[in-house]
Amino acid sequence: QKTAYEIRNCDWSSDVCSSDLTRRLLSQMGLVSVTELSLASNRRADLVALGDDGTLWIIEIKSSIEDFRVDRKWPEYRDYCDYFFFAISDSIPQSLIPENTGLILADSYGAAIIRDAPEHRLAAARRKAMLVRLARATAIRLHRLSDPDFKIDCL
């Protein structure tokens, strides 16, 4: 799968492009991120980002109005992060996004935070569980790069 930087005629509303551009923004802010992280609730977050201070962000990528309207699972993500954002393209009206969430706008020029997310500090036990989940998922993905036959039952 190509990244947004490799696609010349990209549909900037696609999840791939929005995700790549949002990850670039996060890295410029000093956060590291992983895509498609399974949570303890059996939900899967589009992006989970980690700050050097241990803060956890979840970013839900929405590629269309319909994608946003049919998704009713996003409020559950707040239980797993300090900050919750939606990332959308400029083809989605910003007025659809709830005011009590952060908002990232991704377009053909990049991504920018339009509205900061309110802070919902995680309890210490939940933070530790999320950090372990994030570390294990990242280690497993790295291991699979060097050993395609690597198998493990988790995440």
Tally the helices: what do you get?
3
Q: What is the overall shape? A: globular
Strand order of the largest sheet: 1-2-3-4-5-6
Per DSSP E runs of 2 or more residues, the count of β-strands stands at 6
* Helix percentage range: 25-40%
The assigned structural class equals: alpha/beta
Distance between the termini: 22 Å
Low-pLDDT windows of residues: 1-14
Return the string of H and E elements.
Answer: HEEEHEEEH
Question: Hey, roughly how much beta strand do the residues contain?
Answer: 25-35%
Mean pLDDT: 87
Oligomer: single chain
Rg, Cα atoms, Å: 16 Å
Largest sheet: 6 strands, mixed
Layout of secondary structure:
Layout: H1 15-28, E1 32-38, E2 44-50, E3 56-62, H2 65-70, E4 83-89, E5 102-107, E6 110-115, H3 124-146
Parallel strand pairs: 3-4, 4-5
Antiparallel strand pairs: 1-2, 2-3, 5-6
